[in-house]
Amino acid sequence: MKGCIHLHRAIVIFIVLLVNSAKAHEQHHNYKLGAGDKLSIKIYGEADLSMSILVDTSGSIDYPYLGEIKVAGLTPAEVKQKIYLGLKGPYLISPKVMVSIATFRQFYIKGEVRRPGGYPFRPGLTVDQAIALAGGFTERAAKQSIMLSNNNDLNQTLKVTPDDHVAPDDILNIEESFF
Questions:
Q1: What domain range includes position 139?
Q2: What pLDDT does residue 13 have?
Q3: What is the pTM of this model?
Q4: Which of 8, 61, 65, 67 has the greatest number of CB atoms lying within 10 Å of its CB?
Q5: CA angle 57, 74, 116 (to 5 degrees)
Q6: Looking at residue 44, which CATH number applies to its domain?
Q7: What total of structural domains would you count in the chain?
């Protein structure tokens, strides 16, 4: 009987981990690029065309032979397709292109945490994990009053919970408790 209970718990834990992994993969797959993201571009067999490149403040990259490519708002798969179509024909017969995110742009945390500042985003990051990255709450933190805004729209501020997800360019503000 005990063996069945342990097996059941193991199955439940496995399913939860699998669902969380799938959510993180989906977030990464649907991730929209922006200024500050660093891309890793590999063209198999073409070392001169393989590189790591930072998305500039205009949301573009400067790629050999193709010039400036606007990538802000695109997924890595869409950038891969743009590069493939640009190189196919005039430069390469059938380029094998891989585009991945080398480093994500930052999210920011301010207020009553031990180390406020900017931190690299990673898919699946929760508010609770972001607070941990910033060294945790200070003794004056209002733990139930966590506000979130985004650099792209500073006018919209939402109250969030520790389980909510953080996105690149998000700004978390941990307010001070009055008691």
A1: 106-176
A2: 52
A3: 0.72
A4: 61
A5: 50
A6: 3.30.1950.10
A7: 2
Pairing of β 38-43 and β 97-103: antiparallel
The tens digit of pLDDT for each residue in 127-150 reads 999 999 999 999 998 888 899 988
Q: How far apart are CA 163 and CA 98, in angstroms?
A: 33
* 124 in the same domain as 71: no
**Shared domain check, 139 and 93:** no
Written as one letter, the residue type at 174 is I
9 pLDDT band (50/70/90 cuts)? low
3-state secondary structure the chain: CHHHHHHHHHHHHHHHHHHHHHHHHHHHHCCCCCCCCEEEEEECCCHHHCEEEECCCCCEEEECCCEEEECCCCCHHHHHHHHHHHHECCCECCCCEEEEEEECCEEEEEECECCCEEEECCCCCEHHHHHHHCCCECCCEEEEEEEEEECCEEEEEEEECCCCECCCCEEEEEEECCC
Q: Assess contact for 105 and 35: CB atoms under 8 A.
A: yes
Tell me the β-bridge partners of 41.
51, 99
